[in-house]
């Protein structure tokens, strides 16, 4: 028997041993027979395509992959549903569209009235990408100093907005 045949037999054995358990697990998560079957197949495909070594007894990894396939699907569904609602609301209500645009314009104008350091801090925070520590490294100031400056920038921004953008 050549090596390729043993690997195929090993994968086949691994699949037969775990398919019912993975399917039952996914059925409990989804409550849908067909969806569970799809996730089970996707899980094995991901497992076999990413982990080329002999499967052995790595059932925990297979369950993790199955769980992630399920969670990926939920995230994608929620994002699509959110985008659909957002588009419907945006298109169907011109008044709210105008109100949102005016609020955004007012906020952007107020941010432009801040000094350059405050504007940069607000811009970095608005990306929601960086922690205070990372912003401190970018601006070459301490994390504590970032927190103080952000607090003061927010107060100035609030005052500008309270005064009608002046």
TrEMBL record:
Keywords: DNA-binding, Sigma factor, Transcription, Transcription regulation. Residues 105-157 form the RNA polymerase sigma factor 70 region 4 type domain. Gene3D superfamilies: 1.10.1740.10, Winged helix-like DNA-binding domain superfamily/Winged helix DNA-binding domain. It holds the Pfam family Sigma70_r4_2. It comes from the Bacteria. GO terms for biological process: DNA-templated transcription initiation. One of its GO terms (molecular function) is DNA binding. Residues 14-78 form the RNA polymerase sigma-70 region domain. InterPro entries: RNA_pol_sigma-70-like, RNA_pol_sigma-70_dom, RNA_pol_sigma70_r2, RNA_pol_sigma70_r4_t2, RNA_pol_sigma_r2, RNA_pol_sigma_r3/r4-like, WH-like_DNA-bd_sf. Belongs to the sigma-70 factor family. ECF subfamily. This is Predicted RNA polymerase ECF-type sigma factor(Extracytoplasmic function). It comes from Desulforapulum autotrophicum (strain ATCC 43914 / DSM 3382 / VKM B-1955 / HRM2) (Desulfobacterium autotrophicum). The lineage of its organism: Bacteria, Pseudomonadati, Thermodesulfobacteriota, Desulfobacteria, Desulfobacterales.
